Amino acid sequence: MPTMLRLFLLAASFCVLAVSVLAQNAEIKKLRRLVNEVQLEMISVQDELTMLVQEQSAELEQLREQVRTLTDTNQSLQQEVEGLLVKNSLMQDELKVLQDTSAGKQYEEMQQLARALVLYRIQEPQALELTLLELINEGANFPKDLLILMLGEAKRQQGIPEEGLGFFVTIITDFPESPYQNYAIFQASELLGELEQPDEQITLLDSLRDDPGRYGELARERLQTLRQ
User: Fold this and answer.
1) What DSSP string describes 145-174?
2) Which CATH architecture group holds 143-228?
3) Rounded distance, CA 190 to CA 202, Å?
4) How far apart are CA 128 and CA 151, in angstroms?
5) Which residues lie closer than 8 Å to 163 by C-beta, 6 or more apart?
6) How far is CA 97 from CA 83, 84, 93, 180, in A?
7) What is the rounded distance in angstroms from the CA atom of residue 156 to the CA atom of residue 120?
């Protein structure tokens, strides 16, 4: 084979090889671009997944914190309820004791009052006074103004106007809302008349003069008699 032909064939083969290499290089570059694009996409997806996981982790931690808070609150409420139940039980026990004590005390005071009424009937002034004073000082179930009124009435009927007057005046000054106020005023005025203190007697009667009730009428009659 002539030398020129051989050189021509070698040159042709080189050209074919060069074209093939260039084509492969282009394909490699294309593949590299695709690989880079895939890698970038994977990085982007990975970043998104990381952010999503972080957000979910934060939300999960918030939920856990809320659960812990609710658990603590529930335990605290349970303790408070248990404490209230214990306190309620103790209060019920105390109330029962107080009721039992109060019932016993009331029964005892009723016995004392019944005894006082009997003593009043049979004219036992000293024992009556002691019984009524004990109820006034220590009792809690009967109106004190009623007990004081009984003492004043007992002293009046015993003919001891000074002491009776003192009890009636106590009702007038210390129990202004007493339902026995008008009775006490009228009886005090009567005792003042017995003690020859007409000015004070008239002053008390004047305070009853405008009352429409029974003692107002008695006061007007007494004033008319005194001023004749």
Assistant:
1) HHHHHHHHHHHHHTT-HHHHHHHHHHHHHH
2) Alpha Horseshoe (1.25)
3) 10
4) 8
5) 155
6) 21, 20, 6, 35
7) 12
Q: pLDDT band for 65, please (50, 70, 90 cuts).
A: confident
Judge contact between 171 and 180, C-beta under 8 A. Answer: yes
pLDDT tens-place string over residues 81-128 = 565 444 545 445 454 544 444 555 565 666 666 566 655 555 666 777
pLDDT at position 228, please?
Answer: 74
Provide the 10 A C-beta neighbour count for residue 126.
8
Residue extents of the structural domains in the chain: 68-142, 143-228
pTM of the model: 0.51
Report residue 223 as tokens.
């004033």
How confident is residue 36, by pLDDT bands cut at 50, 70 and 90? confident
